[in-house]
Write a structure and sequence with these properties.
The structure holds two protein chains of two kinds. By secondary structure, chain A is mainly alpha-helical. Chain A contains five helices and three strands, in the order αββααααβ. Chain A has a domain of 67 residues: BFD-like [2Fe-2S]-binding domain (Arc Repressor Mutant, subunit A), CATH 1.10.10.1100. Chain A is elongated. The chains are: A mainly alpha, B alpha/beta. The complex binds flavin-adenine dinucleotide (FAD).
């Protein structure tokens, strides 16, 4: 039983940077209770997908563990680039129209 | 609520956390107060270098040597993996004029004890096979090192915590008074009150605003730097890289350096370092735009265009993020470290501009030593905040 639970804790929440549930819970227990803080402290969401997959999961874990409402925790903004982009894209004319959304 | 401590550190960037760590290690009860989240200031939007080659012989270079030694002992002292690496660095030289100036500069640095040399194109390409053909030579120093700023901050906070240090976030300081006992009383946004005989102003770019609360003149100005982060890629060369151009304009104001529009208007110069996460950090700009820490499309474009002129091979690589930080810059390029004359117990440790990661450990250690009234180190007179007291 405890074994199973321990295994759960080794599950990757952020697959890009291979950050486990255990590390995320540890960060929350140390007082890092926003998605941004958890990300900077653990690297979760700093990888290729930039948190598109794991941000919501992390927010949910924070909400569960702190008892705060989820809406307060969900990240609000994404910055340009919103997805990985080739460096050579700067040679495109449209590059300047990219939006920080 | 009212809280009491021995020392209140205002600002929980890498400098404030280092001060807090070294103070608490010496037995002080320390509170660190920050208006933002973890690493919301410059310390969370910067490169990761402990860079020697950019420094003229003098106090900054001397302190970088000492800081590197401290980092080495922190590797065992702190519980976190600090992402320390020692890849060395090269400064890329593009023409004869730069070569002459860099040869002279390297000679000065060598006589000061820095292990650095100018290497020819063949030796350069051996270390960096993908460099553009127009680069004629480079410097090389094996001393240039790096750490992961986030891990260092976490490490200071975790270990400091074990000595009793407490960090309060998202609750900025809005006022500082002195009460009858002579203690400082610091008020934060939510109305909490913190009292202590000693206040350390480590608010980086914002240190001037904290200074105003006690009548201290602190001429620190935000100098924005934008950088981009690439996806994880295999290592593309042995070392980290910088362009000589910016260094040359700083070293020799008498020579006219041929700068393009971006280099002139945005203070653009190239820095490319391999991070501990196997991505590359590429920058950066030097812009005076007040306290605006947004990235700009023009900035990102300029950085990438410039990078491709040095390393055309990176064309096909993805960049995954862009960020901007505000370097705390001072009029003479030196930090402010020490107690303010006439404001007993009020210290500033801020103004590291582009060197705060490199200089964090030594800054914290020296600050703790000043607060604990150790014998005065007169080398540090030139860092005294009082040099700006009577403008
Ligand atoms: C693009 C870029 C690249 C860089 N590269 C390097 C490098 O390779 N090597 C290197 O050594 N350095 C580098 N630097 C410089 C380095 O980032 C800074 O020198 C360093 O981070 C400064 O640390 P700090 O703690 O003084 O400031 P910050 O990290 O900005 O911390 C100041 C803190 O004060 C807080 N604060 C502000 N106002 C208040 C208030 N009223 N109450 C409470 N808290 C407040 C802020 O929230 C912030 O957390 C770079 C900087 C940039 C921008």
């Amino acid at each position: 039983m405890t074994d199973d639970k321990d295994k759960d804790k080794d599950m990757f929440i952020c697959r890009c940077e291979e950050v486990t549930l255990r590390e995320i819970e540890q960060a929350i227990d140390d007082g890092f209770v926003t998605v941004k803080d958890v990300k900077r402290v653990t690297r979760a969401g700093m990888g290729l997908c930039q948190g598109r997959t794991c941000s919501k999961t992390i927010a949910r874990i924070i909400a569960q563990r702190t008892g705060k409402p989820l809406e307060e925790i969900l990240p609000k903004s994404f910055r340009y680039p919103v997805r990985p982009e080739k460096m050579m894209a700067v040679e495109n004319e449209e590059f300047d129209d990219a939006k920080n959304s | 609520m009212t809280y009491a401590a021995d020392v209140l550190v205002i600002g929980g960037g890498i400098i404030g956390l280092s001060c807090g760590f070294y103070l608490s290690k010496r037995g002080k009860r320390v509170f660190v107060l920050d208006s933002g989240g973890f690493a919301d200031g410059a310390s969370g939007a910067c490169d990761d270098m402990i860079l020697f080659q950019s420094k003229k012989p003098g106090i900054n270079l001397a302190l970088t040597f000492e800081s590197l030694e401290l980092y080495k002992s922190l590797l065992t002292e702190l519980d976190d993996d600090l992402g320390f690496a020692n890849m060395g660095g090269m400064v890329l030289i593009e023409n004869q004029q730069e070569l002459e100036i860099m040869e002279e500069f390297v000679a000065q640095q060598r006589s000061y004890g820095l292990d650095v040399e100018v290497i020819d194109k063949r030796a350069m390409l051996k270390k960096q096979p993908f460099l553009s053909d127009h680069i004629i030579a480079s410097t090389y120093s094996k001393m240039d090192s790096q750490v992961d700023p986030f891990s260092v901050m976490r490490g200071f906070e975790r270990k400091g915590g074990s000595y009793g240090m407490k960090v309060f976030r998202r609750n900025g300081v809005v006022g500082i008074d002195r009460i009858g006992t002579g203690d400082y009383q610091v008020v934060t946004e939510d109305g909490s009150i913190y009292q202590a005989p000693i206040v350390v102003n480590a608010a980086g770019t914002w240190a001037g605003q904290i200074g105003e609360m006690v009548g201290a003149t602190i001429p620190i100005k935000p100098k924005r730097g934008q950088i981009i982060v690439t996806e994880r890629i295999p290592q593309i060369g042995d070392t980290n890289l910088w362009s000589a151009k910016y260094l040359v304009t700083k070293l020799r104001s008498d020579v006219v350096v041929d700068l393009n529009e971006d280099e002139r208007s945005m203070g653009l110069s190239m820095a490319i370092t391999r991070s501990s996460g196997d991505t590359y950090l590429i920058g950066s700009t030097r812009e005076f735009v007040g306290f605006d820490k947004n990235t700009t499309i023009a900035g990102i474009r300029a950085i990438i265009k410039q990078t491709l002129t040095y390393l055309p091979k990176l064309r096909d690589v993805n960049f995954i993020r862009a960020m901007a930080g505000l370097r705390p810059s001072t009029p003479d390029g030196r930090m402010l470290l020490g107690e303010h004359a006439g404001i007993e117990g009020f210290f500033t440790a801020a103004g590291h501009e582009g060197d705060g990661i490199a200089l964090a450990p030594i800054t914290g250690k020296l600050l703790a030593s000043m607060v604990c009234r150790d014998p005065v180190d007169h080398r540090l007179d030139e860092l005294s905040p009082n040099r700006f007291a009577n403008p």
